[in-house]
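Researcher: I need the complex structure. Ligand is adenosine-5'-triphosphate. Inputs:
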Amino acid sequence: MSEPLTNGSATDLQFSATPLQWKAIEFPPASNTITAILAGPGCGKTRTLILRCLHMMSIGIQPHEILVLSMTNSAARHLKSELRKVLSRETLQQTDTEVVGAVESLPPSEIEYIISNMNILTFDSFAGQIIAADRGSPMKILDPSYYDDIMYLTSSSRQTGRNHTASVRSRIDKWPLDARDHVIETALNKLRDTEGLATFAWIRYRTLQLLSTKFSSVVGVGRYRVLMIDEFQDLYGDLLRMVELVAVEDRGLHLTVVGDADQSIYGFLGSIDTDKKLKQVEQKSGRQLQQIVLNESFRSTGEIIKFSNQLTSTKLVNYHQDGNDDLPVSHESFSSALERADFVAREIKRLLRQSIITSLSNVLVLTRTNRPTSLMESFNFYGIKFHKRQSSVPGWMSGSISLIHYLQVLANPQEFEFSMICVMMSISGMSRPSMDVVQRKFEAWQKTKPGKAASTLWEYLIDPSTKHSSKKVIRFIETTNHWRDRIQGGGKDGAKLNNPQDLFNALLQYIADLDSARRIISTNLLVSGTARDELEKFYLGLKDASVVREAKLQEMSQNQSNEMNNVLGEEASVMRDEPEVPDLIDWFVEGYNERLYKDSSQRLGKEGVPDDAVQVSTIHAAKGLQSPVVFVLADTTYASLASKQKHELSLQEPSSPRSMYQRGSKIKRHWDEEEVRVHYVATTRAQKKLYFCELHDQFVRIGGSSQYIENPLEMKNRSTPGFPNKIASGDQLQNARKRMYSSWHRPMGRYNFGGSMRFVGRVLRVVLK
Ligand SMILES: Nc1ncnc2c1ncn2[C@@H]1O[C@H](COP(=O)(O)OP(=O)(O)OP(=O)(O)O)[C@@H](O)[C@H]1O
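Model: Output:
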């Protein structure tokens, strides 16, 4: 193959449209019709949608009268950038076989005018605008999955700065579902009234209410003459209802929807069959359906299309040949995620060396979940930079391990009770029933101390009168006390551990002494390769905190000495106290929530992708994208695991996160099929070269190691000075490996470790402006 694989091809530069695309572009936007543009991946749906908007403008519809709604921020950004690209193209060319659209190249000011006046929004921003117009000010978003934080925010303990959410949570977890929902709902209502905080679910719900009861007074909505829906196949419950309400017959609004049933991947949120959905909208809005099916794919080579078709058994027969030789699809299999990551990096290096690609931005790495995404992001063995595309998941560390819990316990086990429970649960052999016993005894103990109703679990544990029957609990107390003493300066030399390296080592040692290493270090690292990254990120966070703290200390002592010299004279210096800056551990723990919040809002705002980086994304966040080279890090076991759970979803408006999973609801999903479609979406992002990389065994071979990396725990550290080369000792590692199989499926009870990271911080995302 002679030419390098790049993003732009010759056909891309001209505004040609196939006759079918042209028909879709031109179909009159009458208010009594719905135009449904259906097509497989790469057939030009997005492009047609944009050209259709421009065509409408050419027949007199104003940019601000057009509303384009998409499911995700990422899709909305993609649409905007495509619109900008289309608008800034220079000349139009006529070809023999294709009809050419008459869109003139526009001066920059006009391009800006169109882009800023045409509303390309996510459903949630659209709903947010309606709410803001209704109440006169925007609302802040509260992620409903942080429901411990919701409790925290509404509880009286907030004023005292204490965190009682663990006990609240453990109590309400025992209640029937309805009662629980009621409590959460009450808390949410309170937050809405007092703090202007609302969940997306509520904002959608309220929007639906406003649209159905007082549509005419909903500011702004009446001005739209055209509504375009991108990725229609993915619309679920309330979003679909929103479309129906905005598009009801008598409002003179035209509706165009664009979609592909084979790319439907939101069944897990209740999205139903595409045809059924179309019929539903047709009936509810009383319109006539005009369906146009595009059948020629312009994106991928024949090899890629064939491979993708095999996945879903669909027949997208036509693909547009642009003269490039077809490269074979590489179907690879690996025994560990780390080995796979290593392959990806080396392969990219090779593509660069052999000039098959000229820029790292021509490569897209797609993963099923966030976990391997984080792994790739911090994988830089071969000097290749990976840039994680912003998905909707917030969080400073979406890591699989919750190191912060351990540090919080070391900082203050009274304040961070929930963390303490998580830490106790992570101790090898400490099961859910034994934790329940502790909890029950604690409650009984509290009753014997009438004056001390608010006594904490830690106070109970260290109370000399408490008789512990479990050796694990005793060990937890002793180990925690020992390392708290060491860190807090109660050690022999009386020094505080304010050096990030010492503190980090102490933290790791604490974890190892608790015998939690199996769960948080070895298991994660060996299975998915991410634990090391999380450790490293954590270490870097600690270092950052230390740098800021040092600067603060210096600044304070500088101020102080200036002040002393100027005002008080030298003698006074003796009387002065040392500046008060918290110790590193407290500084870090305190700043953690703040950073979590700041970072997630910064990340939400971030747009562009650096040129010198490989893009890494989850498949869900990569909808609509394309790239010359795509590596799909397939997760084929996900399908069978998911199918076992057989979630049942309800389409009712959720009053709380959990009511989404009510029993007795009608819709059952076949998860395996959806998983196949997810992978289909992934493979069809590739234009020229596709790598389908599976893990043939989701579990690492016991005792074996990757052919590339001898011992993952003793890998060279990635140019992070101070980060320990060796994380756990050989024996621990061997034992961890042996125990891995037996422990992998052990349920973590309600204190799910992976998810518990969420409860650490109050993650309030302010996304509505
Ligand atoms: N008529 C055409 N001539 C040349 N290129 C085209 C034509 N139609 C579409 N393309 C190109 O094909 C690629 C895929 O188009 P587009 O992203 O619009 O497809 P899509 O149907 O939206 O795909 P997906 O379903 O994956 O989102 C783009 O690079 C686009 O420029």
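Model: Summary of the prediction. Residues 11-12, 16-18, 21, 39, 41-47, 260, 263, 298-299, 624, 684 surround adenosine-5'-triphosphate (CB under 6 Å).
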